Amino acid sequence: MRLFLVVVSAAVLVSAQDTPAPGCTAQSFSIPSWLLDNVAYTDNAVSFDVRNRATNYTASLVCETAEAGVNACSIDGEASSDDPLEASVDTTEDPTVFSLTQSWSCDDREKNLTFTATGTASASLNYTSPLLIRGSLTAPITITPSYPTGPTGHNTPGCTSRSNSPSWTLTTIHYTDEPAVGNSSVAYENFNVLITNPAIAYQASCMPGGGGNGLDDGGVAHLTCAGAEFQSGFMGAYPIATKAGFDPVEKGFWLEQTWFCDDEDAARPIQLTSSASTTLPLTCTTSPDPTNQTTNTYCVSDPPTITLTADNNTHPNITTLPPYVLTDPLPISPSRGDGCTLTSLFEPGWVFSAFQSVTTNTTTKDSEKGEETVSFEIILAAQDIGFQYPIPIYQGSASEEEGWWACEIGADGGNGLPLWPYECRFKWDGETKGLVVDAKWECKDLDLEHPVRFSGISTSVVNSTLTCETVDGQSTCSTTDPGYSWSAPIEDVTWGAE
Fold first, then answer.
1. What is the pLDDT of residues 373-418, one digit of tens each?
2. Domain architecture of the chain: domains with CATH
């Protein structure tokens, strides 16, 4: 038997919010999804609670299943909601398939937007944990948000059980001490170690932070440790954190690490923190410096591999986290600001820099001034830009429309999350120093496979003194301040899915 249970205008529970939650717009773009909880089966009904994770909207659904076919669902509560919710359940076989479609509005940003999302998930009849249904947006744009992979090893089979007795392996242990020679040199002291947590197959490389003489004078070195999370922007909101220290006098080493597991139940992720310490078995050699005024010391571990267990063989401190958060994206926050998509929607603009004008066949008579070409660098005026930098735009061929020039877009280093145009044209007025850019760009920060494409026009003035140099009849003019940059809002923005 194939059974579909449909709900329209589901009522909210007492805990439901009458107005959208703070961050409604950002959450709706990044995690349009629902949690189903308290799923219960009887001979004649299926019931469950629903919470929209983007808005905190909640509803309780009860679906009578006494008769075959489509059965309407009643609502536990009072008045119906203004936000339509449709739900269906297929109980033909085990697992049960749950499907949801919902529309809602967000008014927490400069523009009010209406979202519609749909999603499906399945669970066995005896499943007792909250069930996550990840949605795909069909409005205001059609995208399926990309979710992070989560912290290293979090869902590796055995993560939880192996973490019950924490241990670490230390390798590549090196200590260097090169004292200063009078006032003519700088002391150099360094320590390196590679830490491996076998429960999650995670490695972190540790070294003194801050550069220079990395170890504290006569004290413990507080090391900077980083692993795969340092090189990836797709780890999510819960990166593994490792603290470590080294005492060069006593050769003592300590570490504290926080990691995560949800291999037993993604709806019940846990955070684990544990620490360990030891005295390192360092074997050192010494040699005089070239001036024979000081002695340099170089140490390695013997044996080269050290295994640490948690202090006093204690179990880790465990904190239970909200369901499924290990693979949620980093939340939008004032400290991070908006990324590509939200910037393009609410405050679109370009930041320009490195302006340069080159005029060929220059003579002393302005009337005989030769052909001028310009170039500049450009990047979207987003707050959350990561490690991205502006890319150059060069003047290409003349467009059919008078005054416009095609953009020759410079190399972007193969960046997977571009913040610059993939196609553009521009006008340049050398008299007024006015620059008009008609550009198309795309944002992949929400959906890597189906980026949102934008287009719009910016108008600005290079409001800086230009310094020119003429060599062999070619005049090159650049902003007097090489660090000068200027911003321009993007007008007449249009957008849509690829």
1. 999 999 999 988 777 889 999 999 887 788 899 999 998 866 778 8
2. 5-139 (no CATH), 159-327 (2.40.350.20), 340-497 (2.40.350.20)
